Each structure stands twice: as C-alpha cells, then as structure tokens.
Amino acid sequence: MNMFPNEYRKPKSYMRNSVLISRYNNEAAISDTLALYKVTNLHDLLSNLNFRIRQLRYGLVIWAIVLCPFVIGHAATYTLKNNVQVKGEPGRLTSIVVEPGTAVTPNPDVSEGIRSVLFTDDGLRRTFFSQFQVRTVAPSERENLESIKIDQRVSSAGKRLVSIGAIVRITPFDEYGRRSFHVIGVRGPMQIVQGITEITPRYTKLEALAMKNSIVWESRVSTTSISTNVLRNVLYKQLNMNDAGDRLRIVRLFMQAELYQDALVELQATLKQFPDLKNLDQQSQLLHQQAIERLISEIENRKEGGQHERVFKWLANFPTTGVAVETQLRARDLLKEFADEAQQHKRALDLFESLLEEVTDADMKKKIEPIHQEIKDELNLNTLNRMSDFLRLSTDDTISPESKLSMAISSWLLGAGNINENLAVSVSLYNVRNAVREYLATDDLATRQNLLEKLRTLEGSSPANIAMLLQAMKPVTPYEMGETEVPGMYTISIDGLGSKPVEYTVQLPPDYDPYRSYPCIVALHAEGKSPVDQIQWWCGNLNKRMNMRMGQAGRYGYVVIAPKWTRDGKTNYGFTVHEHAAVLLSLRDALKKFSIDSDRVFLSGHSEAGTAAWDIGLAHPDLWAGVIPIVATAEKYIGRYWQNGRQVPFYFVMGEMDGNQLEINSGEFNRYLQRTGFDTMIVEYRGRGHEHFQDEIHHLMRWMRAHRRAFTPEKFTCSTLRPWDNFFFWVEVDDLPEDSIVMPIMWPKQNVRDVEVVAEIVSDNRIRVKTAANKITIYFTPDMIDFEQRVSIYTNSSNTTKAIVPSTEVMLEDVRTRCDRFHPFWAKHEYSRSR
Asked: Could you tell me which residues come within 8 angstroms of residue 428 by beta carbon, excluding any fewer than 6 positions away?
C-alpha cells in the first residue's frame, strides 16, 4: 500500500484565484461564486463545516462593539477532571428533580443542605454533573446573543403539554417556519403545528400554534440543526430586507451561531445593497480570512485523523489570494511535512536496499527478501516513524551494515523505538509474527498446539517480543475490502451463540489504513430502526460529489460498528445473553478484522438501545472508554450494577418532556452525581421529548476526545448477577453462588444479594481479590507486577506467594479470545474455593 500520491513528485504551485465574493442572493449564486476557487473538494469541505467563531482580532474590535456587545453575565465555565468544559448559567441542586423545570432554576447562592449536583443552562440544554468532578470554575463573559422574534399565531390558551408521547412523524419546516409534529397521545394520534417564534445563535424556539384544540407547548432546538435555507426564508419574511440594520442583524446572528460562511454571504449581500456601508468592506475580508483559518484548522484536524491522501490533495490546491500570510505559511508547512516525509520514505527504502545488497550470505538474503518486499509495499505515513532510529543511525560508521539492516527489520516488526542489532534474531521475528498471526486466526486446537511448539524453537519468541509484535502488526484477519456503493461501509455476518448468526455493519473512516489504530463507536440502533440508520447518525449521509460521508465520526477518524442486536420479533431490550453476545461478538470480530484502538471504544444507543448500552456498559465496564445512552431507561440490572459505573464514564442525553423518564432514572442519576468516583454527565434538552438528539453530536465528539479506557485500574469493585457478566478488567470469576444468579426471565427475584468482586493492586507485588464466586482467575501484565519478583496473592481466605512466569500460551489464548492486541495478559493465576 502506497499512501504517497504521485503528486509528491511534482508538487503543485498554489492556486492564484480570487476568492472575493460579490453575489449572495441565492444558493446558486453562492455556488457560482465559490466556484472561483476551482477546487471542488475544498468547496464541499468548506460547505459541510460548522465554522467555529473565534474572538475577532484587533481589526474587528470596533465593529464587534457595534454589532456584538459583550457583557459580564451570570455565567460560569466549569472545567471537569476529565478536561471537558461546561458553560452556561450555573445552578446547584441536592438531587436530580422529577418535575420538569420546577427546581432547575439557577440559584448558586443557596447554601442549605448538601447540594452536590451542579448544572449549567445555556438556553437550549441543561447539563448536570457532580461537584466531585469539578477541577476549576470561573465566571465567564456571557455574549449578548442576537435574538430575532418571529411573528406566529401562538396558542396562548388550552391544555399545557407536560410530556410528549411517542413521536410518529415530524414534517420539514415550510418557508414560514412551521411544521407538523405527529405524536401518540393518551387518546390516540395527535397533530401539533409548531412555529418558529425566536431565533438565537444557540437555539431556535418553537411554540405550538393556535388550532381548534390548542395546546400550549414550547420547545427548543439547536439553530445549527436547521437548514440555513429555512432560516433565511423565515428571517427574510420577518425582517425588513431594505433596512441595513435588519440585514446586519442576520449577519450577527450567523456569526454568533458559528455559521461563518453564511455570515460572510449575508454581509457581502448587505454591502452590495447598501454601498454606504463600505466601511465594512475590511470586515468582510476579515470574515473571509477567519473562514479560511477555520478551513486550514479542519485540514490539520483531518491530517491528525490519518486522512493523508485527501489532505494532500486539498493542500495542493489551497487558495492564497486574499489569505493572510500566516495562514499561507500553515498550509505550506503542512505541504512541506508531506514532502519531507516522502523524502524520508524514499531514503528508508533506498538505504534498506543498499544494505541488503551488502549481505553476502545467500541463505540470509533469501530470508530477508519477503521482509524487504513487505516494507516496500506497506511503508507509508502511518508506519514511517518505525524507520526513525534506522534513519538516524544510518550514518554511524561504528555500526555494521548487518546491524543497521537488523535495526530496520526489528523496528518494522516490533514498532517504533524497538530495535535489535542481531540480524538473525530480527529475521526470526518475521517468522515469529507469522506464526502468531496463524495461531490467532485458527480455531483448531491441534494446529494451535503445533504452532506453540514451533514458536518455542524460534529465536526472539519471548512474551515481551510477542507483545510488541501484536501491537505493531496488522489486524489478525484483515477484511477483504472491495468496491461498495458507500465507500468503507460493509455488512458482515458472523457466528453467534448456538447456530444463529450475528450481523453488523461497519463504516470505516476516510483513507482507512490497517497500520493505524482508530477510535471506535459501537452504535446500537433504536427499535424500528436499522444498523444503517445508526451509521448515518454518526457518519452522515454520502456526499456523492466527494464520494465520502461528511458526518462527525469520519471527520475525527472513528470506525463505527452497528450490530443488529435485537431479537426476532422483539422491539424491547430483554437484558439477555443473546443481546449481549450480539454486541460483544460484533466488537470482537471487528477487532480481528479492522485496526481499532481498544482503549478508545465507545458504546452508544438510542431509546431501547440506549437502555441496552447502559446495561452492557455497566456489565462489562472494562471494554469501554465511555458509554453514551440516549433517551435510555434505568431498568432491572442497571440499578443493581450501579457500583460498576465508577469504572466507566457515562454521558446521558434526554428530553425534558420525555414522559416520566426523569423520575424513572433519577435514582440512578443521583447515585452517580451524589457520590465520589463517577465520571457522569447528563444533558437534558428543554421542551423536548423522546428524540434522537442529533443536536448533541458535536458535544459528544468533544467528550469522547477527552476519554480513554483505564485498562488496569489499581482498585475496583464490581457487581454481577448474571453468569456471563463475569470478567472485570484483570479478574475473571466463575461458578457464582446459585442464590446470587438472576436470569432475565426470573426478574425480579426476591432477597438476592449480588456477587461483588473487590480487587486491588497493592505495593510490593501484592494482589488482593475478594468475591463470593467459587472460581477466580487473575490475569497479569507488567504494569501490575514485577515478574522478576515473587508475587503475594490474597484470594478470599487463601494467601499464596509464588513466582508468576510470563507465558506465550496464556498471552496468545488471551488475545485469541478477547481480541485485544494492544493489551495482552502475560500470565494468570487460578483459584478454586473448596466446597
């Protein structure tokens, strides 16, 4: 695989096209004007970004005072211990409330009682979190946001809607900002006509309009979730487009809404209509420059996400006319990085070939040839760092040619920074890796035993080397990726429990490379929906012009896995082993086929699937960097597994008027927010019901970016009631007491005490595990103990001190069954309680 396009050989000069825009009266005019770039991909990329408005620079200060006055308001910025920032009007509560809106009033000065539940309100959503999660809090400047009222015949009398039933259909907004909202009410289907009554940069207010049987209801949606064409239609009809002040209100609104390109469009249209405002010409240029800066930031972000090939193409055609020198330099620096890396790529291959020619041993040369061919085929931007030491030491005359060749081979196989100067050992590592791959790929026990015997005869087959080989190699059984209608999307069928197969759909990020590890989202579809629906929620629809999805998961380089987890004929989540298996087996298979960073796997689901994500996240906390239940319900095992929530971060999303969900969930929410050790955030949308909340996706991406799994926690306590919920981090338990097992079909079972697993890594090579389970297996890594010293193990009432010896068989069996190449266990200790 060659990730270096042919264009590297002849770098293109920068485009010199003018980018000054003069006509913005309609979408066609916008498209025609942007075509001046003559860069289709850049145009599409720019059009699909939500441009982040940064504070305007010195040249915009005077204009900002006129258009965007700032005031010090009753607002705060909380920085949490997970490095996530939460902003808005602050409040403090003793607990999550039940009545929507009753006690959720900002009042941070009240001191009576223990008020450990904090929240912020940004007008659209309330975000709840624990005071124990706060690192710092500071007052923040609150922007005096533009607010444009829209005239509608609002229902002022009638029944007040206190909760929203099942949503059947929501029609698109018409040109007047109205839509039909169809729900199932107590007496059957209901139709409510909503109208846009206020537009602000952050939220758009919707209110029920007067009808025969009027309903009083107000809800809010993110302004950026509404098409700018709809916003323009509504604003143009409400405001006086022959008044410069009204036109500038639209400019200000789009700027504050972070719709940067649209703000520029509106400003240019205003300047054309009102030539007397020519003093704002310079501001137009500055707005354009801010848009270009945001574009280069997006390109940098995609480069960081491994999308090198398309980033190079975008950079090679990056405009310079009307672009600040600093921004041009950033683009040129990125291009220079590509050129430098291409040069290093060529130098590494040339140097390897010249050193290989100096090898006189014909047998050794023959053994090296397949390694040489593999490096030629697969050395790319994602693996080039493996050659760093080789290139750095290549000019050292004290190192023999054979040793230099050995360094190149060993670092290619073991990963960057791991070099070996013994050529025979390095060449043997190639055979070790291939035997390891063959072992992991086979289900045949006899074949695996033969491969273990073979490994014992090969030089360099120590557990330490095998651990490095596992991390550096491609997935065990790379998926054969052919042409598909949607690039990077595949549907895969695997064996499930018994004879029933399990199916999942995967969407790979742009420029996917099996040598690069990617974060992953396991997305569970709601009842009545499909895995493809979940793919589209996270990854967006296909942009046929660019031949890629333009959603957020792709932007940040996530692999998205969507298992078909529901049981035949069932719409509700049953807490069963088959549902758990559908999710976990899909993940394990994906770990074997695709290059996934096992420390950055997130679990999410909507509605019943949100409940499933909540339950599965608690039942298997060692697998996830975080769990995102959207409109989920706390049922059955969720309440009994609450302690497990200390081991995995949670991000809940819900609607304020989603029936009695808050009441149902409040017990669990209060446990998470009133106690120490929980990394939990709860987001409640004002006036909203049981929805999918696409509005939240940007916040979710930022939250995920701040989280990684802790693979070997020093201390944990987890609970279980099901026999398959039996693996927690580095402890596996089996043979649970019969009176502590509650199968889903038996729920609720009275007077059942859950099985706790309490484990701790103590100083001086000591391990403690206490549980009512009759069988315990403790797994070890070098992060937990020193294998050179004897280990003291305390299991229930049994104490033993023994040598724990790393085992190739234990390591390979662990990776074969758990499919986690990045965190293999090196050894294990088994304990059985005598009955």
From this structure: 458, 459, 460, 461
Q: Which two tokens stand for residue 463?
A: 């557990």
Per-residue pLDDT averaged across 673-691, rounded? 95
Instruction: Give me 503's structure tokens.
Output: 């199916």
* Of 20-34, 356-370, 500-514, the least confident: 20-34
Phi, psi (5° rounding) for residue 204?
-120, 125
Nearest to 164 by CA among 186, 135, 195, 147: 186
Q: Kindly tell me if the per-residue pLDDT of 35 is higher than 80.
A: no
**Residue 130 to residues 133, 399, 674: CA-CA distances in angstroms?**
5, 58, 7
Give the residue carrying structure tokens 């408005």: 53
pLDDT at residue 485 is higher than 60:
yes
Q: What are phi and psi of 829, to 5 degrees?
A: -130, 130
- Give which of 216, 80, 225 is closest to 160, Cα–Cα: 216
> What pLDDT score was predicted for residue 229?
94
pTM of the predicted protein model: 0.89
CB 518 within 8 A of CB 597: yes
Pair of tokens at residue 594:
């695709």
The bridge status of strand 125-130 relative to strand 117-121 is antiparallel
Contact indicator for 747, 787 with CB cutoff of 8 Å: no
- The label of the residue with tokens 């004290």 reads 398
Lowest mean pLDDT among 4-18, 242-256, 548-562, 659-673: 4-18
Strands 731-734 and 791-795: unpaired
Q: What is the pLDDT of residue 62?
A: 26
Mean pLDDT of the chain: 87
Contact present, 284 and 267 (Cβ < 8 Å): yes
| Bond prior to 744 in cis (omega within 30° of 0) | no
User: Average of pLDDT values for 703-722?
Assistant: 97
Q: For 613-630, write each residue's pLDDT tens digit.
A: 999 999 999 999 999 999
Q: Give the distance from CA 455 to its chain's centroid.
A: 38
Q: Which two tokens stand for residue 345?
A: 């790529």
SS3 string of 40-57?
HHHHHHHHCCCCCCCCCC
DSSP 209: B
Query: How confident is the model over 155-191, as pLDDT tens digits?
Result: 888 788 888 878 889 999 999 999 999 988 777 888 9
Instruction: Name the DSSP letter for residue 95.
Output: S
What are the structure tokens assigned to 190, written together? 């209901």
CA distance 740 to 737: 5
Distance of alpha carbon 191 from alpha carbon 211, whole angstroms: 10
Residue pair 682/138 in contact (Cβ under 8 Å)? The answer is no
Q: Are strands 501-507 and 731-734 parallel, antiparallel or unpaired?
A: unpaired
CA atoms within 13 A on the CB side of 730: 28
For the chain, list the domains and their CATH numbers.
6-53+266-338 (no CATH), 148-241 (no CATH), 358-472 (no CATH), 489-708 (3.40.50.1820), 731-832 (no CATH)
Contact status, residue 196 vs residue 234, Cβ threshold 8 Å? yes
The arrangement of strands across the sheet holding 755-762 comes to 715-720, 755-762, 766-771, 791-795, 798-802
User: What's at 183, amino acid-wise?
Assistant: V
Q: How far apart are CA 672 and CA 129, in angstroms?
A: 9
Closest CA relative to residue 810, chosen from 824, 822, 820, 800: 824
| Token digits of residue 731 | 């402890």
pLDDT at 835: 53
Choose between 101 and 21: higher pLDDT: 101
Amino acid in the structure at residue 85: Q
